[in-house]
Amino acid sequence: MRCNLLYLCYKILYYFVMWKENLYQPVEVLIRNHEIFPIAEHQHSFFEMVYVREGTGRFYVKESGCKVEEVIYHAHSLFLIPPETTHCFTIDTHSEYVFIRFVLHYVEDYIGKYLAEIFRDSSRQAEISLNKSDENMASQLFDFIRKEEDNRQMGTNYLQQQWLNSILVLVARNIVHEAKDECLSVKYLTINETNPAVYMLQYIQQHIHQPELLRAESLSKIFHLSPDYIGIYFKRYYQETLQQYIGRNRLKMVENLLLNSSMTVKEIAYKMGYTDSCYLVKSFQKVYGISPLKYRQEHSQSNNLK
User: Fold this and answer.
1) d(CA 130, CA 298)
2) Is the pTM of this model over 0.85?
3) Which residues are the signal sequence here (predicted)?
4) CA atoms of 56 and 59, how far apart (whole Å)
């Protein structure tokens, strides 16, 4: 009886508490090698592009009504996974992946709103088919990103950003061409037509340096929710509190500024909307275990040793 009850509880949690991963910076590159994929069926609150450098296996997405779309992958397979998409990888042979994770406002800020609209409408996409010329170019760019990640040094972030921006342009171009070939119209959605929970993340990321705009009272006016309910709404979708998400995002931006700029801690505190540099130092040390200046010094030394 007890075992049956535990099994029933597990099934309820499986169907109603989907594990969801959040991103705490506008864009991120990850290189991963796996014999067994470590994460089961899950969702993201951001876009994820996955390039398979080597290996074979299966990728599936679960659509509405529990319909499953399964694709057999191999070296050079490319996938674009929109936010809130239930998906999973299963591996047949050792696989190496390059993950590019990004939010729409990154595309808007660094490439343009036109391309951001293309990605916003890409929810029907799973596997991305590039023409032969673009496939060869994308393969080279992913190799550049991987090699630079293996030997990080001064300028690594800048170079990777240029390469991944080029990949995003190639993918967007092929999405449009495919839509034309299939006589489909690319539907451009306005920001109000998107999932409100996803737009809330975009809004937070865009205004992460303006804490006065991220208070419950301000957010409730924009998203037409009660100030008392907006925190509950956020946690229901993203499985962490609103303040935790904002805090992680701000500290990730602080980390990037420490590593990729010459700004002082005081200047960073002002730019990111902290009340003063002391509060920034205290918040940073609580998460990273060392002061911002020590963190910058240690990472600067490690880059110089490469």
Assistant:
1) 41
2) no
3) none
4) 10
